[in-house]
Structures are given as structure tokens and as C-alpha cells.
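User: Okay, second chain of the day. Same drill as before: sequence in, C-alpha cells out.
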Amino acid sequence: MTASLTHLSRLARWGVTLARRRALVGIENDPNAPAALRRLVKLARLVTLTGKNGPRDYAGAFRAIGPAAIKLGQSLATRPDLVGEEAAQNLLSLQDSLPPVPFAQIREVIESSFGQPIDKLFAEIDPVPVGAASIAQVHKGVTVDGRTVAIKVLRPGIREKFARDIATYEWAAAHVEAMGGEASRLRPRLTIANFKRWSNSELDLRREAASASELAQEMAGIGGYRIPAIDWDRTNGRVMTIEWIDGVKISRVDELRARGHDLDAISQKLVISFLTQAISAGFFHADMHQGNLFVEDDGTIVAIDFGIMGRIDRRARQWLAEILYGLTTGNYRRVAEIHFEAQYVPSYHSVGEFATALRAVGEPMRGKPVKELSVGQMLDGLFAITRDFDMQTQPHLLLLQKTMVMVEGIATQLNPDINMWDTAAPYVRSWLRDELGPEAALADRLKQDTETLLRLPGLIRRVEEMFPPKGGAPEPPPLPDIPLLTDRREGSGSLIGYIVAGLTGAGATWALFASGMLG
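Assistant: Same drill. C-alpha cells below.
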């Protein structure tokens, strides 16, 4: 009960903050939202004496609530199906920026986490951070051996703050999902579970360092894209030290143009590097916003900030590649079949009807540059399909969707005439040929059959353990099944119990008379 009251108290405070900025009006007006939830958000608005008409500041509301809410808001920006198109667009502007922590506290975190004075690790650290976000802030420094580095340090107490807030998110999501209907289909509990997993990864800087190292290994053979080197000797769970990058932020288009960079080539390189990570490696940088990408003098794109990473298994990547290629070529029938094979769409629906619905969304996009497309209309159409065909949310694809939107936005800023479909098609076609062609199918079959043969000895040993050889004693004859009075049988269990109790009581009484204790 105490925990529930705590969650309710937090939700009440957050609800007031959201209501004052009209960030709950969308839920109040949504006919698909559970009636009980609509009544609650309406009550929150009335309590704050806020009218329904007026600007809705979703980003400001999440920023006012705190660091965990900022991260949650950025995550919800990829879920217009869950929060609505207007809220999703507004949340895209939510900047993960907070006032910096005083350097004295940062110094204390560094020294306590390494167990030694800071001057044993760094010859110099700029006390003014180059960036201060909700989870950590970054300082420029020089190691004792003379290398210029970026030092990322967790905010003091941030892990405990996130743990408290996420526990309330989980509690609220469970109650909303229990309302059924559309709330159940959208799977808010799973959304929060994924958010918790991503946040826990960001809150352990060793994990971020490991992700950077893994991505660098996966992209080692890809020209024009690289990952900064990790300084493992100066990295732990609360501090990460990484190579300092001297480059131009990819968002500074005018400066890139002034330095003579080919913006079209950079945009193409960005799209291909993302496809390489997502489809070939199945491991991708899932926070590719403009502040995390730099361009060096030779045109190389350098990525930073690896707290949020996405991972897709091989079968899902094959489905994804086929879906992308089917959309680029207009093969909506095959795209529909993949959705049924992957069990994204329940089998009681028609493949043909789903293909027609996909065509209605896909045809207006084909052959046009991004600047002529309405991403909002496209997403509205896609999410309408998911509702019409009872498709549950696929959380493992949410990060991919978010990153695709980010990459598309940056590529369009660099080259407004770029066509994402045309850029992706040759790469996807080549990957599919390598992965699903006859040579790949034969190699997979040989690999699977070989693995099966190698498992046979172990299988035989397990069978022998279950059915050991007979020993020297003769096998016992079959024994009859004798029903017992204590056995409970349907319709008679209670009667037998009374009989046994009565006989036991009678025997005990007789024994007492016989011993002379009664009488």
C-alpha cells in the first residue's frame, strides 16, 4: 500500500505539470484511449483550472518533470501511435540539456570511482563542461601522457533518481494496460521495460564504452565512418574517457559547405553507414541526432555518445531488408507476406487486404524526394494499418524506427533532394542477394546440418540417462491400482473424509474406555 501511495503521489505531481501545459488534452480527446484514463486526465486539467484550448507544450512539461522524464519524452517521440502525431512532433524538439553540476562534485565522482587523486589520471581538465545532459556531462581534458580526451561523468545521484521514477512508470503502465482495448494492444508495459533497459545501459558508462568498441569493430571496413577510441584505463561505471574529436557538427551545413565538403556525398554516406549497422551488423547507434555526429576535414563522419544502441537478430534483419526492398520496388504482396510470416499480423486477417492497405501508404512515397513527402501523413497511414489489422507494437523495432527518422532528417538537411528509398535500394538488394541467394541458402543448410550431426552424441547420452539399461534384479510384476480412502475423488472427497474422521474418533474413544481413563 505504501508503494502504491508513493507512485500515486508522484503521478499526481507529474499530472499537474502535464495538465498545466495541456500535454494531456490529446489523451482526453482520443476516442481510442480507455474511458477511465480519459476521465483521470480530464480531472487533472480541471484541478489546474486549465482550458482545453491553447498551445500544448509537451516538451516543456517533460523537461519540467526531470531527467528521467526527458529521456522518456525523447523515447515517446518515436511513438505517435501511443502519444499522437502532435505530441510526437513536439517531443522531437526536446533537448537533453540541463544546467551543469559544479566541477567540485564532478571531481569527487572521478576521484572516488577510481580511488586515486585526479592528477594521477589527467594533467588537465577544463572545469567548464562542453555539454551537460540529463544523465552525464562532458569535460575536455588531457591525460598525463599528453592525449586530448573527452571525459564523460555521471551526475551524482542520477542512478537512484532514475530507479525511483522508472518504478513509478512501470506501476502506471501496468494499470493503464490492465484497462484493456487499445491500451493493451499498444503494450505500454513493454515500452517502459525497453526504456528501463536502455536507461540502465546509459547509466553504466562501461557498457557505453563496450558498445563503442563493438561498433568500431563492426564498422572497421567501412570507409568514411569511424568511432573514437576508448581509453579503458580511465573508464569505469561512472566515468568514460574517449578520444577527443576535432570536427564540424553535421548540423552546421553552412560551415561544412564553406570548408568544401560534398554534402550530397556525406548524406549518402550517412544513410549507407546506418544501413550497414542495422542490416549487416544488426547492431546500430540508436541516438544519431545532429549533436552526436561530426565531420572531419577529410569528410569522415565520426559518431559519439553510445549510451543507446539497438540490436536486431539475423532473421528479423532479413525480414526488415525484404520489407524495405519490397516497399522501394512496390512489391506490396511480398511485404504483406513477410508481416504474416513474422507473425506481426494475426493469421485471421487477409494477406491480400493487408497488401492493399500497404499500397495505399507506399505508393504516394515512391519516386519522390523527401522534401515532397509528408512524414506525418505517412506515419498516420501506417499506424492506422496497425490498428485496423490488430498488430501489436514490436518493441525491438522501436529504436530502429526512431533512428531511421533521425537519419532521414539529417540526410534531408544536407541534401533536400535525396530520396531515401532510392539510396537504400541498391544496398538492400545487394545484402539480400548475399544473404538469401542460393549460395547463402546452401551454406546455411550445410551449417545447420553439421551442427545437428554434432549434437547427436549428446542427444544419445541424454536418452540413455532417461532410459538406463536394466540391472541384475528381475523386473517387478505390475501391481494393481488400489484406491485409498484418503484419495480425493470428485463428488466424494468430503464424505470419505468424514468417514475416516469418524472411525478415528471412535477408535480413540474405545481405547480410552479400555484403559479406564473414561467411565
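The longest helix spans residues 438-466.

User: Thanks, on to the next one.
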